[in-house]
Amino acid sequence: MIRTSLSARLSSSVALATLAAALATAPAVAQPEPATYEGTAVRIGHGTAHTLVRTDANGEPASVGVVFTPGMLEGLPRPARGAVPDFPYFLPMPTTGPRTVVDHVVIDWEPVGHPPARTYDVPHFDFHFYLVNRAEQMKVAFKDENASGDPRQQPPAERVPVGYVVPPGTAVPRMGVHAIDPSAPEFHGKPFTATFIYGYYNRRQTFLEPMVALDYLKAKPSLSVPVTRPVSYTKRGAYPSAYSVKYDAARNLYEVALEQLKRGATP
């Protein structure tokens, strides 16, 4: 009995030692790390631009942005006499990584700006982050620009951030109606640099839009601004609590991004 018990204890000790050695030499379980996913590059001016999604350590989207080379600010087209002074460039989202509320991005180059006069009538880019697909975007139509004042186009109050308004004159085909912030510096005698706009169609949110002046980009800014959020959103998902416009000298790249993504309430 004693010999059997001793043998059993020795066998158990050997097994435990073998298990401990195996655990010590086993590879460590990889910890999740932030990742970056990039879309296909598109030629604009003398440069390129592409979409980008960054995730946090849990694999959740942390930011959605557009990265572009300095060449994008040069060699841009000018409108022919009598032509519409707007040049849209379609950017697909990354084909890998987590999905976000953004379906695609359109960068609109506005060489002479647009109304209102003495506010946005300077060369600038509209970075439209669309919440609807391309087919839905292309179906957006209005009888005239003042359709944004029609009650049928005015979104519910809970879908418009506090302080924002949707005035007449902001209905644009293949885009939507635009909600602006009247407290923004450009409406109070300051030069337009960058601003954030919400877009709607048929009372639904359809895009998020950082708008940035060409001269401001050429000054190589480092801007990060909180975004006023509405009470609720049309589409389920995570929405920005800030946006940024930055030049990275080390990489010689620009990035315009929706940041600090947080899930929003839906009806």
Counting DSSP H or I runs of 4 or more residues, the number of helices is 3
User: What string, H for helix and E for strand, traces the elements in order?
Assistant: HEEEEEEEHEEEEHEEEEE
**C-alpha Rg, in Å?**
26 Å
* First and last CA, distance: 74 Å
What is the approximate shape? globular
Count the E strands.
16
Q: Which structural category do the helix and sheet elements fall into?
A: mainly beta
Walk me through this protein's architecture.
By secondary structure, this protein is mostly beta strands. It has one domain (36-263). 13% of the residues lie in helices and 34% in strands. The protein is built from three helices and 16 strands. The protein has helices at 2-25, 134-138, 214-218, and strands at residues 36-38, 42-44, 47-55, 61-68, 87-92, 104-110, 124-130, 171-172, 176-179, 194-201, 204-213, 222-226, 238-239, 242-248, 253-259, 262-263. Strands 1, 2, 3, 4, 12, 14 and 15 form a seven-stranded antiparallel beta sheet that branches. A seven-stranded antiparallel beta sheet has the order 5-6-7-11-10-9-8. Strands 13-16 form a two-stranded antiparallel sheet. The chain starts with a helix and ends with a strand. The model is unreliable at 1-10 (pLDDT under 50).
Short characterization:
Helices cover 13% and strands 34% of the residues. With 267 residues, the protein is mainly β.
Task: Note the topology.
Blueprint: H1 2-25, E1 36-38, E2 42-44, E3 47-55, E4 61-68, E5 87-92, E6 104-110, E7 124-130, H2 134-138, E8 171-172, E9 176-179, E10 194-201, E11 204-213, H3 214-218, E12 222-226, E13 238-239, E14 242-248, E15 253-259, E16 262-263
Antiparallel strand pairs: 1-3, 2-3, 3-4, 4-15, 5-6, 6-7, 7-11, 8-9, 9-10, 10-11, 12-14, 13-16, 14-15
